[in-house]
């Protein structure tokens, strides 16, 4: 394994040398999207310089090479999340598309009038709205699990909601707004006991945790490339093979068929049944490069480094009386979501931006969560392994300035 040397690691990410408003960029918006190492950028470049061709056509050498790289990337993802077979890895545009795919295929086949889907108050809109659309059209009910005042999921409420009517539990592995890690292992076991299936929204987990879908025993797992150091426009849906096999296709078109005639069409086998049209070939190949990048290090060591950063930031925050951290005493990842009493989050974000510091402010696509916390929004600094304690110090210097200016 490569030694984790922060100086070297930072030099792998060219964007970290950028200036913003004439200041060195301090990128603390990793929850929204991650930056890309040079190896990922090179993988895209290399593909277009040497291998660009359509896949699965078997027509010529270049196409064969592109197909090989594309399919090797699928196996790389399979191993990355410890899936049982490559057929269980469906390429999508991202988490959002993965969840919609399940809602519109498995959902329409398996959820009917009077059935119930459980989500949590912590969900990103993309793990709420597809289920609302489904429920509306089939007459099912969407039930949200409450949270406690500290931002943690109310597990007891979850067990109370579970019943024979529950057909699906759709839950985020890690909350994007607060960084809180949900007890998904227990939730999956409990859901299976009542015969429900479980979809995990892993958008925020893929960059931080080692994922093992077989150990989790989840039925579906969705994540996006761009949050785990790969490009935008590529993502993954994992599903257990028997479920995927039984599901009808979603998008119709090329690649997803075996035979087409006007008297009827037969669909391709897994995983192609769910991959209509020309896929994001360079995205898949660059995703494999991102996985290679991550896996050259000891991932537990990286998590430790990130936790060290968040603990350092949390301690600093706790010494500021006006600063209120949401979810600080929960099991969580490297996210500091907070408000400064007396200041609008947006105004703070603007002042930070002027000092070269990128954070996200607002509802973080989790409006029901903000409602439950009785907040309009928070300021979210989300750290990655390429951030440093010096950057945390600069964040707090900038927050001090913001406070002086706004209060
Ligand atoms: N779920 C969570 C928890 C997220 O953080 C995000 C992205 N912010 C999504 C889903 C949606 O991901 P994407 O926009 O890449 O489809």
From TrEMBL:
Q: Cite the entry's keywords alphabetically.
A: Pyridoxal phosphate, Transferase
What family does this belong to? Belongs to the class-V pyridoxal-phosphate-dependent aminotransferase family. Csd subfamily.
Summary of the function given for this chain in its UniProt record: Catalyzes the removal of elemental sulfur and selenium atoms from L-cysteine, L-cystine, L-selenocysteine, and L-selenocystine to produce L-alanine.
- A Pfam family recorded for this sequence: Aminotran_5
**Which stretches make up the Aminotransferase class V domain?**
26-395
Enzyme Commission number(s) = 2.8.1.7
PANTHER family per the record?
CYSTEINE DESULFURASE (PTHR43586), CYSTEINE DESULFURASE 1, CHLOROPLASTIC (PTHR43586:SF8)
Q: What is this protein called?
A: Cysteine desulfurase
Task: Please name the source species.
Answer: Aliikangiella coralliicola
Q: Which domain of life is it from?
A: Bacteria
Q: Which GO terms describe its molecular function?
A: cysteine desulfurase activity; pyridoxal phosphate binding
Cofactor(s) for this protein? pyridoxal 5'-phosphate
NCBIfam families from the UniProt entry: sufS (TIGR01979)
Kindly state a single biological-process term from the GO annotations of this entry.
cysteine metabolic process
Query: Could you tell me what reaction this enzyme catalyses?
Result: (sulfur carrier)-H + L-cysteine = (sulfur carrier)-SH + L-alanine
């Amino acid at each position: 394994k490569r030694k984790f040397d922060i100086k070297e690691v930072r030099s792998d990410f060219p964007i970290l040398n950028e200036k913003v408003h004439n200041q060195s960029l301090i990128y603390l918006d990793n929850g929204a999207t991650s930056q890309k190492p040079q190896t990922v950028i090179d993988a895209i470049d290399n593909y277009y310089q040497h291998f660009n061709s359509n896949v699965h056509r078997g027509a010529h050498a270049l196409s064969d090479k592109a197909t090989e790289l594309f399919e090797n990337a699928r196996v790389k993802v399979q191993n990355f999340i410890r899936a049982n077979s490559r057929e269980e890895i469906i390429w999508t545009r991202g988490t959002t598309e993965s969840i919609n795919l399940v809602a519109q295929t498995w959902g329409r086949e398996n959820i009917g009038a009077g059935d119930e889907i459980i989500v949590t108050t912590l969900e990103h809109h993309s793990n709420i709205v597809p289920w609302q659309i489904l429920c509306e059209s089939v007459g099912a009910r969407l039930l949200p699990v409450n949270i406690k005042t500290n931002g943690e999921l109310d597990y007891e409420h979850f067990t109370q909601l579970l019943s024979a009517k529950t057909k699906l539990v759709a839950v985020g592995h890690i909350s994007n707004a607060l960084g809180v890690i949900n007890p998904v292992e227990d939730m999956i076991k409990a859901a299976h006991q009542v015969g429900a299936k479980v979809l995990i929204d892993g958008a925020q987990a893929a960059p931080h945790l080692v994922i093992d879908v077989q150990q989790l025993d989840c039925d579906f797992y969705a994540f996006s490339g761009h949050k785990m150091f790969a490009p935008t426009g590529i993502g993954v849906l994992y599903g257990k093979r028997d479920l995927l096999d039984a599901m009808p296709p979603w998008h119709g078109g090329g690649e997803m068929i075996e035979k087409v005639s006007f008297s009827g069409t037969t669909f391709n086998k897994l995983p192609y049944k769910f991959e209509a049209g020309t896929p994001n070939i360079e995205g898949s190949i660059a995703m494999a490069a991102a996985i290679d990048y991550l896996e050259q290090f000891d991932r537990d060591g990286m998590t430790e480094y990130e936790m060290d950063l968040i603990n350092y930031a949390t301690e600093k925050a706790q010494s500021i009386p006006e600063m209120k951290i949401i979810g600080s005493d929960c099991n969580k990842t490297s996210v500091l979501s907070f408000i400064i009493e007396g200041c609008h989050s947006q105004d703070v974000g603007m002042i930070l931006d002027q000092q070269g510091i990128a954070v996200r402010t607002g509802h973080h696509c989790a409006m029901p969560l903000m409602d439950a916390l009785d907040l309009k929004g928070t300021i979210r600094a989300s750290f990655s392994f390429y951030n440093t304690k010096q950057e945390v110090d600069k964040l707090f210097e900038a927050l001090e300035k913001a406070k002086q200016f706004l209060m």
